[in-house]
């Protein structure tokens, strides 16, 4: 049934209500009091204005360029979602803080009561933890994905697990094992011990995983905080085509876990162990993370990424260059 054409007075009344509601921000009850109408009448006038096409909502963001980059990242990779924050030129700490805050918000949107969240250590994950501010406690369990390295707060995964559980209102499960064993046999012995095996078995069932993406090329890379290596070995890693550290594993530019001795000594879950997670969030900041990110994305090891604008643009440029080279 076609709605009859409204008369001029009705159109004027609808227009007045729409202006008060959508432009001046008045509640329907406030409009009703102001115009001496019932709230139900105001609701009907707004609905009629919508039907007549009198309401056109145009939402613009001052950061539309960031939304465009996010869409390009999702379209160009296996990612299901991406969040890009502004890069603060000349201030890496502030850039990392902003990325951490965005990742913290994404994590809070993702988590549900009863979830298990598994995390790595690292500066980026630490930035996420410090930005967590839930509106109410969450009944979650936080577990590590790797053994730990003591000495710095961000390499001690147990510290970050405890801190995250405190901020979320959840429960921490800690692991009492080093990140690196002396050899593969010792690694197998450690991961076979019941207390460590139980933690990693729980981590394999995680609903959400949160991990940083490390670089291996810069001398100051935080990867070398985990296990210092001689300068010659660092150059050898780069020469071998190793481009990233993910869950403490060295990853080639093709996205595959490298066949390298260090990986054989890790007391950590394998990157593919997170494949059953509902959400695997990667967090990174800084242009030096562009190549590591490309490697991790090539391996389809993430389904969600939080990164700064400059780094995201560099990743997209590298991917475009790789396509042209192929």
From TrEMBL:
<dbReference type="GO" id="GO:0016987">
    <property type="term" value="F:sigma factor activity"/>
</dbReference>
<feature type="domain" description="Sugar-binding">
    <location>
        <begin position="62"/>
        <end position="317"/>
    </location>
</feature>
<dbReference type="InterPro" id="IPR007324">
    <property type="entry name" value="Sugar-bd_dom_put"/>
</dbReference>
<dbReference type="GO" id="GO:0003677">
    <property type="term" value="F:DNA binding"/>
</dbReference>
<dbReference type="InterPro" id="IPR051054">
    <property type="entry name" value="SorC_transcr_regulators"/>
</dbReference>
<dbReference type="InterPro" id="IPR037171">
    <property type="entry name" value="NagB/RpiA_transferase-like"/>
</dbReference>
<dbReference type="GO" id="GO:0006352">
    <property type="term" value="P:DNA-templated transcription initiation"/>
</dbReference>
<dbReference type="GO" id="GO:0030246">
    <property type="term" value="F:carbohydrate binding"/>
</dbReference>
<keyword id="KW-0804">Transcription</keyword>
<dbReference type="InterPro" id="IPR013324">
    <property type="entry name" value="RNA_pol_sigma_r3/r4-like"/>
</dbReference>
<dbReference type="Pfam" id="PF08281">
    <property type="entry name" value="Sigma70_r4_2"/>
</dbReference>
<dbReference type="InterPro" id="IPR013249">
    <property type="entry name" value="RNA_pol_sigma70_r4_t2"/>
</dbReference>
<comment type="similarity">
    <text>Belongs to the SorC transcriptional regulatory family.</text>
</comment>
<keyword id="KW-0238">DNA-binding</keyword>
<keyword id="KW-0805">Transcription regulation</keyword>
<dbReference type="Pfam" id="PF04198">
    <property type="entry name" value="Sugar-bind"/>
</dbReference>
<feature type="domain" description="RNA polymerase sigma factor 70 region 4 type 2">
    <location>
        <begin position="16"/>
        <end position="51"/>
    </location>
</feature>
<protein>
    <submittedName>
        <fullName>Crp/Fnr family transcriptional regulator</fullName>
    </submittedName>
</protein>
